[in-house]
Amino acid sequence: MQKKQYRTIILVLGALAALGPFAIDMYLPGFPAIAKDLNTDIAHVGLSLTSYFIGIAVGQLIYGPLIDRFGRKKPLLIGLSIFVLASLGCALAPSVEWLIGLRLLLALGGCVGMVASRAMVRDLFPLKDIPNVFSTLMLIMGVAPIIAPTIGGYVTAAVGWQFIFVVLATIAAAVLFAVARLLPESKGADTSISLKPRFILRDFSSVLKERTFLTYAIGSSLASAGLFAYISGSPFVFMEYFGLSDKMYGIAFAMNAAGYITGSQFNRLLLRRQTSKQITLKVGMLQFVAAMALLFGSLTGTLTAVGTLLLLFSFMFSLGIINPNASALAMTPFTKNAGSASAILGSLQMGTGALASAAVSYLHNRTLLPMTGVMAFVTTLSLMLLVSYHFISRRSLAASPVYETER
């Protein structure tokens, strides 16, 4: 692969992967304005986040078999077209119920980019390069949450929240054009793959039987669920609890997204000295400490806006390291059914995120606890899983004859 082609592919895959986060984050500063215009409150507007996460979780399970059967590009073009139309529909939503439903459709269209981008990385790059490729994608993806809320804040203030979705439709149309013209087909149609439900379930079952996949897919999903709890709770925490303006909220959100980017790029340095397994376990402990500090500060009433930002930055920095390594470890065992594996991985991440987001909205009590409590809970579960797998793997290795000989 030529260097120029490599860069082009990475940029287009990064844009595909970033479209979902952009659609999540860009309209967050508009929550108060949306609630006012649609005669509801922020908690109910937050359900449009939950519906989006559900749509992504379900949609990825649909696209996984499709991109294995028909190739990567055709489903991409169809899904992105749905995203464009649903974005325009959100701009015209007459009620919060319509917005919630259209956000579900938006997710069902846009999630194809998340599935296809991970599968295409597995198609196009050698195993040893995949963690670094994912780190590069994280860099591109990380730009989205930095600029999206800032753009959303200015768009809301200047012309109204409806135009946020017009901007989203324009961006998706540009990505659609790039996929059609610049992205090569990494895997052609495979007629041996059946789309009958029993065969799809069989493929999913074979993926779930891989212990390595299951561990890192669930572990990374729980770690990422803390991010979705933060996304769901942050509009209230920063704009109502701490009293930041919509523009200042965009800046605060960008700072935490910068933590995610910094972590993903620092991961490149860590990979020179340690394996992905070692890094994931150690950094999972750092994320746990940050989450517990947020919970403790919420319970004692000692958290300030600055303190919250610093701890969230640490949490996001850790997640930026965990995600590329866990994703690479989860995808490594697969070739033929990489699309199904990518779909399950993404579905688990977004399904867990939907539950975390819904929990924050359901537990809303005008304090910091719903957000920080959910973040601490899912992070604890993630660390417990990773630690358990680490010790089980070491015991299995120690018991094997090969290990005894080499030791």
TrEMBL record:
Alphabetic keyword roster: Cell membrane, Membrane, Transmembrane, Transmembrane helix, Transport
Keyword Protein biosynthesis: no
Cited InterPro entries: Efflux_drug-R_Bcr/CmlA (IPR004812), MFS (IPR011701), MFS_dom (IPR020846), MFS_trans_sf (IPR036259)
Subcellular compartments: Cell membrane
Hydrolase listed as a keyword: no
Domain of life of the native organism: Bacteria
Membrane topology: Multi-pass membrane protein
Record-stated family: Belongs to the major facilitator superfamily. Bcr/CmlA family.
NCBIfam families in alphabetical order: efflux_Bcr_CflA (TIGR00710)
Identification of the protein by name: Multidrug effflux MFS transporter
Biological source species: Pontibacter populi
